[in-house]
Automatic annotation (TrEMBL):
GO terms for molecular function: transferase activity. Residues 1-137, 169-285 form the A-factor biosynthesis hotdog domain. Coiled coil: none annotated. It comes from Streptomyces apricus. This is A-factor biosynthesis hotdog domain-containing protein.
Amino acid sequence: MVHRAAVAEVLLTGWERRAEARFAVTAQWPRGHSFFTPVGGTHYDPLMVAETIRQVGSLLAHAEFDVPVGHQFLMHDLEIAVQPGQLVVEAVPASLDIEVTYPQVKQRRLQHAGARYEAVVRREGRVVARGSASYTCVSSQVYQRVRAGRLSLGRPAIRLTAPLSPQSVGRMSPTDVVLSPLGEADGWQLRVDTRHPILFDHPVDHIPGMMLLEAARQAATAVLNRSSLTRSSFLPTSLVSRFRRYAELDSPCTVQAHRLPADPGEHRVLVSGHQDGEPLFDVTVSACDLRG
């Protein structure tokens, strides 16, 4: 119900309805993860916060709003803001309580058609993060019509391109790098490896939104590392993302990034993606340097 094939990738552990549009969800973050590795070796990856928020929407859509399994979801936007001090990895996995509210629920022909939801994530009573997202969902039949002519499942993806240096984008393994050089200082090609066990947990006909968020994080890290005298550990403190359309597997996607004005001690980078000459996504990444 959270659109993950591997049980190990399910972060949610339970839920209950508290009111008509309010729910309590529980989750657990592992101390170590093969992809959402601790930032600087000390802090939970904020992208795991984003994945938790995404899973919340899928779970409640199926379990509480009666969306049939097999319906397709289109995420329009996803935002998170974290408290870095509450993300410290401790001696046991982090147990989380998530308060979820739905300021907007859409229906079509008496069926759930989408929603906007907001979440407050707490760890031992203290706020770890806040987030929100909106989505629409459609039946598989409608999805086939909407995606007619662009369904990529079974069609060859573009050739896998060479990765950037893992250290330049805050990664340890080249298999986790989702950007390839284009010969531009602040521009890259999205590196789409459909064999990746986390980003492509199961077969899909488009590039998952979580991969686009990871591309934004890596692009922001590359820009910030270039202007830093030493290699730093940049922890995203907020992500504000908008997804314009489906990201196709069989067409190159370019990613650009540039710095924005920011308060002292903070860094802000706007990352945008384009495909076939059309806007694909944009993410404003705010970050702090864990090394001061």
